[in-house]
Amino acid sequence: MRILIAAALAIAGLAACKARQPMVSGHAVHAYEIVADTETVVLKGLISRADIEADTVHFNWFKQNMQLGMADAAAADAFRKKGSQFQVVIFGGTWCHDTQNLLPQFYRLADVSGYNANNITLIGVDRAKTTLDNLHSAFHITNVPTFIVMKDGTEVGRVVEYGKYGQIDKELGEIVNTIK
């Protein structure tokens, strides 16, 4: 699923907008544009953790927030046991304080559980919560961050912003545990 989303976005996106920054890194294809903003750098399109980690000037929040807290043990166990059975699609805004808090929390869970980074698709949205090639419409995105657990191209569940409990890792673990 991740490869299909990446390929579709890359093919459609590269032809449509010369402002995008196409890159290939390992198995991931990155196709995004940098949106003009008076407060911060806004990445819109298919991005990666490496894109965020590489810009320590604008995205220092990622490294700082990675050091806060620990991943929920039960969620890490669920990701560890069922990690090959699902993918996670994340819509987030590099400008959004909720994304700045919760995206590192998700990656702590992924790191602790050994979840395969190739099963994560990270899509940046602008302040209007739109994406390149209207992926926000296809996935019915209204708020960010949104973490969508997918199995075989079908949504299993999602956590929007802080979710039901204010602990996205716990809620994601519960969703993953429903996968048969």
From TrEMBL:
Signal peptide: none annotated. It comes from Deminuibacter soli. It holds the Pfam family Thioredoxin. This is Thioredoxin. The lineage of its organism: Bacteria, Pseudomonadati, Bacteroidota, Chitinophagia, Chitinophagales. Residues 43-180 form the Thioredoxin domain.
